[in-house]
């Protein structure tokens, strides 16, 4: 027997296939995209921001983008966290 715990806001059903493609993205991808405007401003003007006071989801987006940069440079054969499903 295999059992998975998947955290998602989307309703799911037993046996459901989960598809990621150009149209269907995971939650990490969507949350990062939702914060790209402020992330770009932080990259352009870091002196205007105090890391301790960033909104939680903005901090998460910055972390995910940093992890993605390392993955691309050192582990390019591994899947992106923004383009896959990972479960515990």
In words, what does this structure look like?
This protein has 88 residues and is mainly α. Helix content is 41%, strand content 0%. It is built from 3 helices and no strands. The chain has helices spanning 27-34, 36-44, 56-74. The chain is elongated. It starts with 26 loop residues before the first helix and ends in a 14-residue tail after the last helix. 6% of the residues are buried.
Give the topology, please.
Elements: H1 27-34, H2 36-44, H3 56-74
Helix pairs in contact: 1-3
Short description:
The protein is mainly alpha-helical and 88 residues long. The chain is 41% helix and 0% strand.
Percent strand equals: under 5%
Rg is 16 Å
**Span between termini:** 15 Å
Overall outline:
elongated
Please give the largest β-sheet.
Answer: none
State the order of secondary-structure elements, H for helix, E for strand. HHH
Taking all residues together, what is the mean pLDDT? 85
Helix percentage: 40-55%
Secondary structure tally: strands: 0
The secondary structure category is mainly alpha
Uncertain runs: none
How many helical elements? 3
